[in-house]
Amino acid sequence: MSSSGEWFTSKARCDAVGWAALRVHVGEVADAGTVVEVAGELDTATAGLLEDGLWLALMMPGDRVVLDFSRLTFMDAGGIGVVVDAHVRRVAAGGAGVAVLGASGIVRRVFELTGLQMLLDDREPLAMSRTVGAEGRRCELELARRRAGMSVADLFVAYFALGGAADCSQLVAYLNGDAEALDRHQRDIAVHAVNERLGDVGRTDQCLSYASA
């Protein structure tokens, strides 16, 4: 699949096989809803990255989430558990669950052996034509907060210390989906607070860009 936008990337140390890498891209396709493109190896060591991507996807508008596994080369029980959990949460919220496109080889076999082949969709993988927009940027800030290990209270204290002028309720509203709760400048202050924490924990590769840049 050819698409623009950012990839979430993880490299996890595996004792037996060295470095196992996974890449997850969250975007949108017209008339198809949210698409999560996954490439690499999905196992217990890397499943957390897909969990983060699906958490972001489930916050986006629409009731359909499509997983494009056409570039996924391996999956184990840890990976299938994340997929099932996302499907259950989507259905519980009144949505259509998740659909898996492009699964082949061992990845497809895992679905069949676990009796979850009903999640498979044999249509061709979808080409993402646009990236996550303003709503997605809000979701990325919330996702980055979680990655940085910050509580909402931690974020507000850091944001306020950097000169943030919005109150806590406005920040929470923004994190919860109200894209108008913070203007571009206030959003950038919040982003800077999260980026500083990401730097402190050695995850500068996950830092967010600034709206005013």
Q: Could you characterize the architecture of this molecule?
A:
The chain has helices at 47-59, 77-92, 105-113, 134-147, 152-161, 168-175, 184-200, and strands at 8-14, 18-29, 33-42, 65-75, 98-101, 120-121. The protein is built from seven helices and six strands. It is α/β, with parallel strands linked by helices and 213 residues long. The protein is elongated. The protein has two domains: 8-121, STAS domain (Transcription Regulator spoIIAA), CATH 3.30.750; 134-206. A six-stranded mixed β-sheet has the order 1-2-3-4-5-6. Helices cover 41% and strands 22% of the residues. The model is unreliable at 1-20 and 128-135 (pLDDT under 50).
What kind of sheet is the major sheet? Answer: 6 strands, mixed
Which regions are unreliable across 5 or more consecutive residues at pLDDT < 50? Answer: 1-20, 128-135
CATH superfamily of the largest domain, called what?
STAS domain
Beta-sheet strand percentage?
Answer: 15-25%
Strand order of the largest sheet: 1-2-3-4-5-6
The topology string of helices and strands comes to EEEHEHEHEHHHH
The CATH class of the largest domain: Alpha Beta
Integer count of domains: 2
Shape: elongated
Give the N-to-C terminal Cα separation: 29 Å
Number of helices: 7
Give the beta-strand count: 6
Work out the helicity level.
40-55%
| Helix-and-strand structural type | alpha/beta
Mean pLDDT, nearest integer? Answer: 78
Identify the CATH architecture of the largest domain: 2-Layer Sandwich
What's the multimeric state?
single chain
Kindly identify the CATH topology of the largest domain. Answer: Transcription Regulator spoIIAA
What radius of gyration results from the CA coordinates? 18 Å
